[in-house]
Amino acid sequence: MPNFICQCTSPVPANRKDCPACGRDCGFPNVRLAAAPEEVAALEIRVADAYASTAARNCSAQLDEFGNSVSHSHAVIARSLKVVDDLTHSDRNYYTSYQAQVQAGSRDPEDNNWDKVRTQYESALYPNFQEKIIFACLTLSEEGMSGYGGFSILLKDEMIGHRASLFEENPHSFIDRHNILMNKPIPPGYRAVWDTKSDLAKAKLHHKISPNTTIVDHPKILQTDNGGTGDSDFIEVHIYGSLNRQAISKVIGRKPKTNEDRIIWRRVKKTLVSIGAEVVEL
Ligand SMILES: [Zn+2]
To answer: Model confidence over 114-130: pLDDT tens digits?
Structure first.
């Protein structure tokens, strides 16, 4: 990955947001990585392949329609009621990255196959700034992956689009599927910036498009929820920095089963409405 060059002509290391020579803001490092010429060129080749494949199967128009839908998709984070309660409590409460929470001692890695290797693949994706990245899911259904929690926090595009990059799939599955050794960089063509998210979706999912595909099929083509953590398939949204409750457009959840949780949920709903966010109870 060549260094980014600041307008002052100094090279800026890939992990830095500010120029080390002049201090100018050089943009979000994850967005810079996704916008690098070799990433853009490699993704364009994949999109061309997607159109060649769907043309041969008489469904290029259906691929176009799928791309149009995905251009209106959003980022969603599924978490537990407790996390939603903490985040919505005040403007001064932040949702921070997994790595930042572990470093701060406010969260411990879970004893599962995913968390054991999580630090390695996150640092392969974002060398030396992985603690800045929040993980979300690209969605057309407005629901997150249930394995991460029963409450879906839908984010406002305005608050995240400029600092978000997209990645093909769960990095753990990606590394497995492509037989990538952890001492090798991630190959180009599997990332996108927010405005080209539909290109990444078309490149990844064209094999699921057929002449019979219609708009009602699009949400399930984009996301496959298989329950547990790390078992589902979706395009990841990687957001630089933290966020607070003002970034929430909507929270979707089922009415909790216990009295204690119902009291919390009632409080959360009231707070969300007071800050102008929508609530949907399923
Ligand atoms: Zn500079």
So the answer is: 676 777 788 888 888 98
